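Meet the record:
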Amino acid sequence: MCVPKRYSLKIAVFILVIGSIIFLKLLFANSGHHDQTCLPAPLPLPLGVHKPDATHFSSFSEAVQHRANANRSILMAYFDAGALNMTLNFYHSSLKPHGVTHFLLVSSSSRACAAVQAEGLACFLYMSDADSEKESVYMSKDFVRKMNIRTYMILEALKLGFNVLHTDVDVVYFTNPLTEVEKECPEKDCDLAPLWDSIVYNEGFVFIRSSPAGVRAFEDMKVIAETTNKDDQVALNTVIKRGHKYGLRFKKLPVTQYLSGKAFYEDTERVFGNSAPGCHNCKVAHNNWIVSIEAKVYRFREMLQWIHDGLDGYYTNPDRRYLTYLNAEPSNTKGSETRDMEVKALRNALAVSSLLNRTLILPRFHTKTGVQCSLLNHLRLTEFDRAYRGEYRESTFLDHHLVPKHIKESISKFVTIATDDAPDKSVYVPRDTKNGATSDEILAWFSGRNEAVLRFSTLYNAFSRFSDRRTQMRFQEKFDSVDLKGNYRQYI
C-alpha cells in the first residue's frame, strides 16, 4: 500500500511515542515493586528532631529514628485496646506535663494505635494481634503472650543502636524520667536499670542501653519467651540473676524515687488525692500491686491522678447533676457490720441517684478498724464498674481541677431522710421510718431540686423500694450481681 508523504511523518512519530511508553513500562516492571534505587534516598533527620507528621511511620526503624533524642535514647510504651484510655491518661497526666517528647507508643491493636494517632500521638503498629483488641485477664495465656511482645520490640530497638526506657502506661511521672534514668545508668558502667517492685524487678519500668550486654540480655529474654510460658517480668529477673556470666552491668533504680504500687499507694496509705501525704523525692510511681484495669483507673481517680476527660466529658460536662452522701464514722460495730451497713447505704444511694437522674459521687468508706478507705476495700471494682460505669464518680471528684466552677459552687445543704436511727433531723419523713422512703416519696421531695450537687448527710436505711415491682426486681438483680466482697488489691 502506498502511504502519502504527508502522513508518513505522523505515523513515524506515533510509532516512536508508543515504543517509548512500552520501553518505560518494561523498565519499571523489571525493577521490582519495592526497588527505589533509581531515586535519591531521603536524608534522615538529625537525632532528636521529629519529622512533621510524627504519628505515622512506614517502619519500626524509622519510628525509633525520628522519636529518639540526641543521645539515641527513646521512651517506649506498649499498649493494647484494653489499655487505650489508660494510655491517653498516661500522655495527659505524665508525658505532656513534664515535657516528655522523645517517646513512641507501640501497639499490636490497629484500632488502639489509630485512636492515639487521631489524638496527634506517635504510634507504631508493631504487629496485628486479635487478642490485642480486648483486655486480657491478668496472667492468662494471651496476657503473657502480649507482654512478651514488649521483649521483641525492645530487642529490635537495641539492635538498631538505641537505648530504651521501657515503661508501662499505668504509671505516674513527677519529672521527665528519660533524662533522669540516663544519669542513673551512665554508659561507662551500666547496661540495665529496672524499678524494684518490692519483691522482684519490674519490667514495667526499665532502662536498657544498646551495649553488647544489654542486647544479649534481651536476646536471652526472647529465648525464654519463645521456649517457656513465662512472661517478660520473670524473664527479666532470670537474666539479671545470670547476666554476670556475660558481663551485664546492672543497677537498681533508687527505691525512694522509683516506687511500686505497694510502696507508693499501699505502704504509705495514699488513698485520696486531697489528703494524701506528699512525695517530694518521687520521680515515678507504678500503679501496680492491684488487679484489673477498672481498679487501677479508680485508684488513679481517687488520687486525682486521672486527667483523661473522655468523649462523654467525665469531668467537664456542664449540665450533669450529682448526688452524694456521707458514711458516718463507725462506732461500736464489728468490721463486717461496718462493711454491710456501708454497702446497704451504697445500694440506697444508687437507687436514689437513678430516680433523680443524678450521677452518684461516692463517699469515703471505712475498713474493719475504722480507717477511711475507698470502695476497693468493700467491692470488686471490675464487676461494679461494668454494671454502673458512667453512673458514679470517685469521692474526690469535686476537687478535680477540670470540674466546672459552677458545679462546685452549687452544692445543697445537708439533707436527711428521717429513719428510726435519725428521727428528728429533717422534715423529710417517710411513712415507714423503719425501712425507708419509697421511690414515689423520693421523687416528690427531691425531683424539683436545682442544685448541681444534692448532698445527703446519710443514707443508712433511707430507701426501701421502688413502687414499681419490675423496676425493683431489675434494680435488685443488678446490685446483687456486684455485691461481691473485695479487698484492697482486688485479688480474687
Residues 153 and 481 are 41 Å apart (CA to CA). Confidence is low (pLDDT under 50) at residues 1-7, 21-53. The chain is about 35% helix and 15% strand.
